[in-house]
Design brief:
The chain is α+β, with helices and mostly antiparallel strands. The protein is built from 18 helices and 27 strands. Helix 5 crosses helix 11 (about 355-370) and helix 13 runs antiparallel to helix 17. The radius of gyration is 27 Å and the shape is globular. The structure holds adenosine monophosphate.
């Protein structure tokens, strides 16, 4: 049997982990990077995923998709409010969200599948064996459609998704492995796009989720937006330019703001420098931690209400929480840590890397499923109430929120009109009284009821939620003995046939996708060396002989000539030759800034690493 991996499919970054010698470990890529940016770019030459996609975000903003997790399992109406924050185009279809890239349209599960595939390949390279089975985590608040969309993404990527696990539950597992004590744990998870709070009970190696709450639209991305808005106003005031409509400039600003925010988690002040050459100025600004804290304070405060609600749902007071666990990159922000500590009255645990803890927990869950750990049971809960619409447009709850799953519930209903032979079933999810205020999950009809006076038929409705949190609804008329039962498909819009088609397409294009990716990476590498060489030549060619300069120019011309071709080996060889030709120039350039220019790619990468 092949190994089962654990995958954290994040809004900002994704990771894959596996169990080795009793400990979960995250799997790095060939360059040692653990976090795969959840970014997918559709370029003229093919599809890029992760760092390569993120690097060209500024140049290709309309075809580069990030934060796609926000669109998973949603329709256009659900997301149209926040589209103004995204440079890519979402088609205004009613059903599933469709993103326009070039001449193609892609759905969020397809985009997520590309991310999952990259993680799958990474795991296969590390483990030296095919990986076909996975556990994938989702925010606790993901509804049925979003969970199903995540499972579909796995299928499209060629993964059998054995279990969908709530992220806070996975995090508790990762910690639980190290400290199998009894007590109540609060898991505070603030990532890039979502906030979750979960209250867990731990006893004798058994985890039980007592309550969950959160906000699917709150996270580090919002911190970035607050900072970007502030910077935009500052740029308007100081340079008289409004960059808000310039997509490229906005991306530069967003990336610059995020990097500055991350630095400010460890430093008191930092300088942001962004050249906006197209507008004829370079923006330079010192920012201190207090500036950012003032901007994000209201956002951090918004996490505290859900914490109090979760405590109330669990019937606990803050003092009864024994331990607090931090998850998600945004919990590195000192203000977040202070507020969490104030609320719960104790310092939060942060021993495990907050970016990795969910993936590590997913690997533990994978290990449990593989039979590796037998003394640990996992109980999860439904994040929202589930029910059906009854007379007068009222929601009648069958499964209240925070019910431990897997679970099922049965209830009897009847008709309201004499001789009624068809009953409309409308499946709902949410906490509001009226059906129209809740989320519509599915509609179906129960037909073939014998005509009877109103109130006579006995219609038994059964809700069944499996261990993944996926719902099935059945309706049966009992009085006549004639039974009809119906299975409800999630209503987020992808049909089975569509998913099958996507799977087939992904297989059909697998080879060319890999080839295009490699070609693009080779070209990017060539561009880096060409740029560095031009810069170095411009600044230090008098330090070496004319002959050497000639050699460099020749190698440069040779690389430029093959760069746009599709012969990857030729590009690589020409790049190596140019690298060789510039070695002496690099040695001669004692000025460290110029040296840095020649190795600019490596320096950039090192900085990127640091800022994570
Ligand atoms: P996650 O969704 O858990 O991967 O978290 C990603 C979010 O964490 C992004 O908004 C990042 O900007 C943020 N983040 C990562 N590192 C830091 C840091 N050092 N300080 C503040 N925020 C960070």
């Amino acid at each position: 049997m092949s190994r089962i991996v654990g995958i954290d499919l994040g809004t900002t970054n994704s990771l894959v982990a596996y169990m080795e010698d009793g400990f979960p470990k995250v799997i790095p890529d060939a360059e040692g990077h653990v976090l795969l940016p959840s970014v997918v770019a559709f370029t003229a030459d093919g599809v890029l995923v992760g760092d390569a996609a993120k690097r060209q975000l500024v140049r290709n903003p309309t075809q580069t998709i990030y934060s796609v997790k926000r669109f998973m399992g949603k329709g256009y109406a659900d997301v149209k409010e926040e589209l103004r924050y995204f440079p890519f185009r979402v088609l205004s279809s009613e059903e599933v969200v469709r993103i326009k890239v070039g001449k193609r349209e892609v759905t969020p599960p397809e985009v997520s599948a590309l991310i999952l595939k990259a993680l799958k390949e990474r795991a296969e390279a590390q483990l030296g064996e095919p990986v076909a089975r996975a556990v994938i985590t989702v925010p606790a608040y993901f509804n049925d459609s979003q969970r199903q969309a995540t499972k579909d993404a796995g299928r499209i990527a060629g993964l059998d998704v054995l279990r969908i696990v709530n992220e806070p539950t996975a995090a508790s597992l990762a910690y639980g492995l190290h400290r199998l004590t009894s007590g109540i744990v609060a898991v505070y998870d603030l990532g890039g796009g979502t906030f979750d709070i979960s209250i867990l009970k731990v006893k004798d190696g058994i985890f039980e989720v007592l309550a969950t709450n959160g906000n699917t639209h709150l996270g580090g991305d919002d911190f970035d937006r607050a900072l970007v808005d502030w910077l935009l106003a500052d740029i308007r005031a100081r340079h008289g330019v409004d960059l808000a409509r310039d997509l490229e400039a906005m991306q530069e600003l967003r990336l610059g703001a995020e990097a500055a925010k991350c630095r400010l988690s460890f430093e008191e002040r930092t300088v942001l420098t962004i050249p906006f050459s197209q507008h004829g100025f370079t923006y330079r600004r010192e920012i201190c931690r207090a500036d950012v804290e003032a901007l994000i304070e209201p956002l951090v405060a918004q996490t505290l209400g859900p914490c109090r609600l979760a405590l109330a749902d669990a019937g606990l007071s803050a003092e009864q929480i024994d331990e607090v666990v931090l998850v998600g990159g945004s919990t590195r922000v000192p203000l977040v840590r202070r507020r969490v500590e104030e609320l719960f009255g104790k310092p939060p645990h942060s021993q495990l890397n907050p970016d990795e803890v969910v993936a590590l927990g997913a690997a533990v869950q994978a290990h449990i499923l593989a039979g590796g750990i037998t003394n640990m049971l996992l109980l999860d809960v439904t994040p929202l109430s589930l029910g059906i619409e009854t007379l007068g447009g009222v929601m009648s709850v069958l499964i209240p929120r925070n019910t431990t799953i897997p679970t099922s519930a049965k209830e009897l209903f009847t008709t309201s009109v004499d001789g009624q032979t068809v009953v409309d079933m409308h499946v709902l999810q949410g906490e509001r009284e009226l059906a129209k205020d809740n989320r519509s999950l599915a509609r179906f009809e129960l037909r073939g009821i014998d005509p009877m006076p109103a109130g006579m038929p006995r219609i038994e409705v059964t809700f069944l939620i499996d261990a993944n949190g996926i719902l099935q609804v059945q309706a049966k008329e009992l009085r006549t003995g004639k039974a009809a039962s119906i299975e409800v498909k999630p209503s987020y819009g992808l049909t089975d046939a569509e998913v099958e088609r996507m799977i087939e397409e992904s297989f059909a294009h697998a080879e060319e996708d890999v080839a295009s990716r490699l070609l693009i990476e080779t070209r990017n590498e060539a561009d880096t060396v060409i740029r560095a060489t031009e810069r170095a030549l411009g600044q230090g060619k008098e330090l070496i002989s004319e002959e050497e300069v000639g050699g460099i120019k020749e190698a440069l011309a040779a690389l430029t000539a093959v760069r746009d071709g599709s012969d990857r080996d030729a590009i690589r060889e020409a790049t190596d030759r140019l690298n060789q030709a510039t070695l002496r120039l690099a040695e001669v350039l004692m000025d460290s800034a110029l040296k840095a220019a020649l190795t600019s790619k490596r320096v950039t990468e090192a900085l990127e690493q640091k800022s994570r």
